[in-house]
Each structure stands twice: as C-alpha cells, then as structure tokens.
Automatic annotation (TrEMBL):
Species of provenance: Georgenia yuyongxinii
Locations listed in the record: Cell membrane
Keyword Transmembrane: yes
Protein name: Probable membrane transporter protein
Lineage start: Bacteria, Bacillati, Actinomycetota, Actinomycetes, Micrococcales
Alphabetical UniProt keywords: Cell membrane, Membrane, Transmembrane, Transmembrane helix, Transport
Bilayer topology annotation: Multi-pass membrane protein
Domain of life per record: Bacteria
Transmembrane segments: 79-97, 104-122, 137-157, 164-184, 204-223, 235-253
Length: 261
C-alpha cells in the first residue's frame, strides 16, 4: 500500500466501495463514486486508479451477478453473447486507455446521458414489462453490437457502464428494468474481467487498495441486488433516473471546467 494512505483514506475507500457496490447492483453507475475516491488517493495515477477500480468492481459485480442469477434467472440467450463481445472489446479499450485523454470523451458521454435521461423521463411506462423487439439472430446480433460498444467504453473509462448497459437492454432490446439489471451485471463482470486481463500483466493495479474497496463493494452489491429484486422494476427505474442525473451533473461540471474555466 502506498505509504501516504492513512486510516482516513481507507475509511473513504470503504464508504465509496459500499456505496458503489449498492448502486452498481441496483442499476449500475457505481464507478461515479468509486473511481473518484481512488483518484483522491495520494500517489495514485489516473491509470492506476482506473485499473484498481476494476478490481473493486469485479468483486461487486460477481456477487450481484450470482445473486440475480439465483433470484431472477436472467436471460442467458442475451447475457452470454453480449458478455462475450463486451469481454473482448474491454481488453481493446483497456489497451488504449493510457493513450486517449478522458476529456476527449466527456462531452460525448454527457450528450448521451442527457438523451438517456430525457428519454426515460418522457416514457414512464418503458421498462415496466419485458417486450422484446426482436427474436433469434437479430436479437443476438443487437446484443453483440451493444456488448462491443459498451465493453470498449468500459475498458477505456468505465464510470456509468452499468447504467449504459441497463438503458441499452431496456431501450434497444426491450427488457424491463429488473431483468435488464440482472443481465447487465453478467456483462459488466465480463467487461471488468477483460480490462483486468490487460491491466494486471502491465502492473497497473494497486492490489492493497483494490482489495479494500473490493471487499466493501462486495457487501454493498449483495445488499443492493437483494433490495432490487424485492422492490422490482419500478424501484430500479427510480434509482436509474437518479444515477443518470448525477452522471449528467458530474460530466456537465467537467465539461464546463474544460471549456470555460
């Protein structure tokens, strides 16, 4: 562990991990909390924070994926091809993470989040029930395409990936919010694993910090998954709107600082 990390910093990581695990398990977007906490740690570079964040996230997503699998039974016809594509794309995304500045993506992601938030609020009935838009090869093809795009994003940056997965599963494929969250956890586990396949051999992970935030993330993920299952798609939708709103505020502030301050 870096010598500058004291007890207060560890407490911050534990709180961030718990919160991120809960948010990720319900609707995704825990990276909004966990990654900034890691970036605040003294002596931790942005690339190390991104890589270490994946350790914490994969511990949480594995827990929530197993919990959802046992209690919801996600559609593996969608989850399996989407996760496979996302895994491969995340490796490629991680490979270019150190070469592309995060600021280049911020305005694009902000516009996407604004569109997602507007679409979700304007269509309150969307995501209440599962009404798949396609069957067979067209459904699998759409799942593969979504997995490639979102997997690459998670490898490069990461925050908001779970939320993007949920809205893609709801808005594009036609799932209700609860089964969409269940599938998203399986795919998000694959993207985290893919990024780590690149980051670990390159020595970018700070394991001591990753295991601390990961243990907390695991606890939060278990609690969040069980609460989402107990309360259903309506609850997940509300949390989704809140998380996307927070993402819009954060990215909006970053964009303002980048171009106007």
């Amino acid at each position: 562990m870096p010598p500058e990390i004291d007890a207060l910093a560890i407490l911050l990581l534990v709180i961030a991990g718990l919160t991120a695990g809960w948010v990720d398990a319900v609707v995704g977007g825990g990276g909004l909390v966990q990654l900034p906490a890691l970036l605040l740690m003294p002596g931790v570079s942005p690339l190390q924070a991104l890589a270490t964040n994946k350790v914490g996230s994969i511990m949480g997503t594995s827990t929530s994926a197993i919990t959802y699998y046992r209690l919801v039974g996600p559609d593996l016809r969608t989850a399996a091809p989407m996760a496979a594509a996302a895994f491969v794309a995340a490796i490629g995304g991680a490979a270019v993470a150190s070469r592309i500045p995060a600021e280049a993506f911020t305005p694009i992601i902000l516009l996407a989040c604004l569109a997602v938030a507007t679409w979700t609020l304007a269509r309150p009935k969307v995501g209440r029930t599962t009404e798949l838009r396609w069957e067979g090869h067209r459904h699998v093809g759409a799942a593969l395409g979504l997995g490639l795009v979102i997997g690459a994003y998670d490898g490069v940056l990461g925050p908001g990936t779970g939320s993007f997965l949920v809205i893609a599963l709801v808005g594009v494929l036609g799932y209700a919010f609860l089964p969409a969250s269940a599938i998203a956890k399986i795919v998000n586990f694959a993207t985290n694993l893919g990024a780590l396949v690149f980051f670990v051999p390159h020595g970018a992970v700070i394991w001591s910090l990753g295991l601390i935030v990961g243990a907390a993330n695991l606890v939060g993920a278990y609690a969040g998954a069980r609460m989402a299952v107990a309360r259903g798609s309506g609850f997940v939708r509300v949390i989704f709107v809140v998380v996307v709103g927070a993402l819009v505020v954060r990215l909006g502030w970053q964009t303002a600082q980048q171009y106007w301050f």
